[in-house]
Amino acid sequence: MRNFSKLLVLTPKCSPFIIGPLNSMSNEFDEINILLNHNYLTELAHLPLKGYFSHVRKFTKSHICKWHNKPDNIRIYISSMLYLTPDANNLDLGDKIFRNFKNVIESKNIEFDLIDAHFTWPSGYVGAKLKEEYCVPLVVSAEGYDIYDLPFRSDDWKKKVEYTLNSADQIITVSQSNLKCINKLDVTTPVTIRPNGFDNKYIHPMNKLECRKNLNLPLNKKIILSVGNLSTVKGHEYLVNAMKKVLKIRKDIICIIVGSGPLEAKIKNLIQSLDLKNHMFLVGEKPHKDIPLWMNSADVFVLPSLNEGNPNVMFEALATGLPFIGTKVGGVPEIIISNKLGILSEPGNDNELADNILVALEMEWDTKKIIGYANKFTWDNIANTIFDVYEKISNNK
Fold this sequence. Notes:
By secondary structure, this protein is of the alpha/beta class. The chain is about 40% helix and about 15% strand. The protein has 17 helices and 13 strands. Strand 1, helix 1 and strand 2 (about 30-40) form a beta-alpha-beta unit. It is globular.
């Protein structure tokens, strides 16, 4: 591929938006090496505890490198260290990870001629340091909170993020909304916008009745599905409050929330206090490979986020023909551009969310058109945009 043959990827974990494009572009490189940072303390999450610990479990060593059918030329290296302050609050962490990653690169004789770092902090910052050390081009992806939140917390965070982005040869971000955040900073690096996407090899339409039988779900109910971390930014408490209002109008509904996180106990208590336990169910985190079953069992998908970058689950829901009922945050309105695809409300407004859910349950949705629209966002198509970014750097070498 062009002037590059050995790609180094820096990322907190092998998430779908990492795995999908790399699967698609793996044949373009002789080798792809992935460096992951791991905190020893996350292993405490293996204890039988819920809430915050169930969220931390996603960053244990066994979780951050999950990858089914990984291409042979992709190798994953995990660098473990111990730190008490979480990544998003730890201003010293970037330099510590840089030193660890440098040791891994030298001890494993890892060669690379291009760095692709995901999230401005800490991976992007580490990528900037590695660029200085090894004199290779750098792409930094600004994905979500790392650009709409982190640089605006303090002058120190702003300096870290601006240094990272100005060190890059190209910036990739997932929405126009994120670009507006970048434009508020003192950054001169060119930016390419590419949305997230989905893997059409396993996310696709399936028979609804068969999926419900497989999951032991009722066949005679309307099912509302939400998939996401149980954290404040995902806004699940507004979904619970909205369901209280929805159930005053119709009773033939259940709402399933797939996910875990620090607010698990709070959401469960809210469901109990509103007497929704027969209609709302927290089923915990599920393996990503099982998400298509849950998607294809549902009638409506709801994501009541208070902020977003460009959520993968939005594309996965659309790919199964589900209408998307969400909020006007981040890149969501850039994808849900028609009421033929879904309905959006203001974030934090459970009354409007309830009204939109009721409307969605009554509408006749053209699932084929929704699926056809979603197919623009397969990882193969998104990978082409990433190739174009690499091409720009190659031409400027």
